[in-house]
Amino acid sequence: MLLHLLVLAPFVAAILMVMTSKEDAKSSSRLAILMGIAFTAMSVALIAGGNVATEAIEWFRIPGCKGPVYYYLYNHGLASWMVFLSCGLSLVALISARGITSRSYRNFAIGIFSLMGAMNGTFLAADAVLFFFFFEAMVIPAAVLIAGFGGKDRMKAAMTFAIYTLVGSAPMMVALWYLLTIADNSMLISLAIALQSLPEGTQNLLLVSFLLAFLVKTPIFPFHGWQAITYAEAPAPLSAILTGAMSKAGVFGFIVWVLPIFPLSMSAITAMMWLGLFTAVYGALMALRATDGKKLLAFSSMGHLGLAVAGVFSGSEVMFPAVLVLLVAHGISAGAQFILMGIAERMTGTRELDQLGGLSSKNPVFSTLFGFAGVMALAVPGTAGFVGEFSVLLSLWDMGPLPALVAGFTLILSAAYMLRFIQKVIFGKQAREYEEGRRTSPLEGVSIGVMLALLLVFGFHPAFVTDSLMQADETEDAAAAQVLSDASINQGNAPMTEDEIHQLDSTLAAAGFKEDERASIIAQMKTENNASGADEANENTVKGASDDE
Amino acid sequence: MISLGLIPLFPLLGCIILGAIAVISSGSKKGPAEGFVGTLAVLFPALSFAGVALLSLNMPDGGIRETLCNWIDIPMFRVDIGFLFDGLSRIMLLFVTGIGSLITLYSIGYMHGDRGFARYFAYINLFLFSMIVLVLSDNLLLTFLGWEGVGLCSYLLIGFWNKDLKNCQAANKAFIVNRVGDIGFILGMLCLVTIGGSAILNYDALVNFIQMIINGNHLELVVPFLSVAGILFFIGCTGKSAQIPLLTWLPDAMAGPTPVSALIHAATMVTSGVYLLARLGSMFALLPVVLDIIVVVGMLTAFWAAVTGLFQNDIKKVLAYSTISQLGYMFMASGVCAFDASIFHVFTHAFFKAALFLGAGAVIHALAGEQDMRKMGGLLKKTPVTACVMIFAFLAIVGFPFFAGFWSKDLILERLFMNCSMYIPGFSIFGQEIPNIPLNGAVYAVGLATAVITAVYMGRLIILTFFGSYRGSKESEEHIHEAPAVMLIPMVILALGAVFAGFLWADSIGIKFFAETLAPVVGAAQAYNTPVVTAHLNPVIFAALGTVAALLGMYIAYKLYAKARIPVAKGSSAPEGGKATWTFLFDTIHKYVGIIPVNVLAWICDVVVDKILAAAQWTIGAIATILGDGAASFQVRKVRVQIALSILGLIALMAIVLLTGGSL
Prior knowledge:
The complex is a heterodimer.
Chain A: H1 2-19, H2 25-49, E1 52-53, E2 57-61, E3 68-71, E4 74-75, H3 77-97, H4 105-124, H5 128-137, H6 139-149, H7 154-182, H8 188-196, H9 200-217, H10 227-233, H11 236-246, H12 248-261, H13 266-289, H14 293-312, H15 319-348, H16 359-362, H17 364-377, H18 384-397, H19 401-426, H20 442-460, H21 463-474, H22 476-489, H23 498-509, H24 515-528, H25 533-548
Antiparallel strand pairs in A: 1-4, 2-3
Chain B: H1 6-24, H2 34-57, E1 64-74, E2 77-85, H3 87-110, H4 117-136, H5 140-158, H6 165-196, H7 203-216, H8 219-240, H9 249-252, H10 258-267, H11 272-279, H12 281-284, H13 288-311, H14 315-335, H15 339-366, H16 379-382, H17 384-398, H18 404-419, E3 423-424, E4 427-429, E5 432-434, E6 437-438, H19 440-466, H20 474-478, H21 485-500, H22 513-528, H23 539-561, H24 577-583, H25 585-636, H26 639-660
Antiparallel strand pairs in B: 1-2, 3-6, 4-5
Helix pairs in contact in B: 1-2, 1-4, 2-3, 2-4, 3-4, 3-10, 3-15, 3-21, 4-5, 5-6, 5-10, 6-8, 8-11, 10-15, 11-15, 13-14, 13-19, 14-15, 14-18, 14-19, 15-17, 15-18, 15-21, 15-22, 17-19, 17-21, 18-19, 18-23, 19-23, 24-25, 25-26
């Protein structure tokens, strides 16, 4: 129920917002914030509740594909935290937006709620087509919001963003469709099995198409062309959501969809890791030269996510909790920083670093928050960022000292650009005279304070975050049973768990599908799906695999 | 008994309360009442000190261990938040909290009337919290929390007067240079985790692990890896303790308020590198190569910084280079496994250097912010108490007999001569074999020469500041006044420490209290490295040589500066010409090795790579447009026109992108 609510209710909320008054920003903002609080509370409940799955409801059939597409949601530790980021940041964005877009607040809230629904859907979908649907759906409200509420170059930014990300995921759509024509249905396990039956060349082609979509979304060098202008031109609260939650969809896609489906070769893994590291260095170097505050933050985000991607492809056991903590920490701190930068722009009317300065004496409360947010982005021990970056370094160290050394280099660079950023914005003397815009409202201040406090809490007790993954391990069996019972209801087209992927992977990947092995796989399938429907298909799959040999 | 957790908790509470006061009162014109804030600010460190004192009196021989809770628990990596109170952390904590409280008290007078009064004390309390965590923690990761925490506080306090961008830049430099060292620390920890799992980040476990290696004769197997870890940790130490090559930040750090320089950049934070070496002593004792590197680095740093101290005109800069030089001594001692001697010097140095800095602060306070020694002089009569404090501390630092520095410095020099096992490997010339040449004499000689130079530059400081006649402007002379009591009391107490602290370990007269309290922690490590010089030498010889060095240096200083005409100060107090080249040697190296390459890389990324990517991106877009247009034009049968237009459009687009530098 919670899952349905988190995915569908935001759209209902968006419709509710349509009914509020366009002129009366105050009342509509109150309603929006109340609903935002409700969603955040639900996401917290989702984290606390552990792994749950909805029933798989048949949605539609794609012509030419064997199985139907399900509306099927599934929550695991990683997804629940991403949902938390998307709901929490949306709430803060709704609060902060009161100071920026007072006139058409209603429309802004409509966009934010649709975006939130799409993001939650992306993170919670257990069906590949459903995932892809939401993955693409995220772009539309975001692009509309940029075009409607952005800065000077907003049309250009919105077009670049929409075209770049949509084109980037187009190959994935084709690849997914191709896989679906072979697979039984669009569940993860079926896709993984279907892929096994393909020749290696095709496999690699499909892998590249999948990777491309996520590389663009994250973004990873050299596909970051859309990012800086988008984050800079988008209204600051939206930038906070884009970097804090939406960009996580890319890293999330690597972990949840690429790693389980594709049997990655060592060279592919190494290449991706180095690409991630290169992005981390590149982002940091670009941030060092940035003159626009929001662009600096955009490149900083790029650097951090590059590090996260490098962590994902380190192949270490520590990887899961490490990347999760890093993502959560980055989501909160980058979100807070974008919102603070938005406030600075609102107050001074510029985001050029050379035009800013001297805020610490003029707006001490704002500067305190700004300074602390900046320091926390530096991954000082005791903040969540440190736990994340340290454990990512730990997993990179598994790949050899050089990757860890490069990652360490980015930490030095991040200190360099972040301190420069803090200095330019709040220290020194005021660079120019200006008419001061709206200051930090108490609610804004409190919400950012809560975010910073969360960073400290997760920094000293990361178990809050990492335990959700442990829980995933412990409850795997129960979840599997649940999934299996779901499957038997649905004509045996079983959505299967990762455990089984491993089993199948290892059996099939082991050289030579011997007769008895194959029989055992089929027997396994049979016992699992005692309703007869799927057996034939499974047999076909396995036969196909052996034929290719 | 009180819980160990309380000791860091007090300053943390102080930081939170004072921080809240600072933020709440930031809107008001007047600011919070200074008396109230000052009382709170001193209260919490003093409570910590009381707690430490109480624990010290009741400490069992093995120390106290306490695990508070789990910190990080992920697969393959598990670290707890735990504290370890033993002989080493006892000494460190006693002087950290004790001197911390005194300097906080002094700051009340020094910071009087500053708008950021409450903020300052919030930072100071946060610093003390981090420093206590650093020395009290029972594992490396928690030590690292304190390690970066003190670095952060150092950043906040150097840039405390943040309206002046120079201060901010000094603060940024301190943080970034320290970050370089910190990465060494992190990688060192990772290296250890690879060798023995996350459990050996715990100090006790590490000692057991080392013992196991020694007992099992697995040294050849593990030493190469441990050496890498050791070097990485040492890089961390060079950053925090301002050794070659990461020392450039410390002189710049003098931009902060003077009590901060006394507390952070002289007495406590910068010595944490020495503390870490002692804490990991059992590991370093196994690594002869790393130890040799430490000796060489310490020796070069001590000598270079002492010479640099001669060239400075800014009173605080002289003290900064003096600190670097003294830290070099401590590293030399660590490099010959004389960890008790290095910690003893940390201890005595904390007293006399804090006294010197606070004295300098009082002088600067009296002269309304003047730091150039060429504009001082003759202050002995005008500020007698300050002058006495500084002269006592001066006698301590040069190693005048029976003052604190005399005992600790001579101990280090003696150990250098006895324990240093470095040698030039033997080789043969013209068939004649030359045996290994031991270098202990050379190292000792450099140490002694540095002691002479120390006496010269410190003598110069004292003479220029307190003797002769006043060289400043006439108007400013009338305003010169002695510091208030709240500043004088801490100074006098520290001066007493500078005189008497050495008697805790007066080797020549048979008092070994200090060595005995450290023995349970560092004894095993020191026993592992046997002295090279086995012949018994009378320690009085070393004491006599040290005294001669001090007296010689003082005599040279008197000859050179007492009667000399001091050139009239003009412009900045920075050294010029060859002196500047020497002073900024490492800044120059950093510029060419670090800053410029990074900037060039950044320029390439920004101006070359990104523009190429943007151009490629637009080209693809343009080609798509042309294809679309081309297809459409077939229908309207105006092929040529359409294609021509498309190409024109492409060129125009490219031109726009390249000319405007559209950073997409």
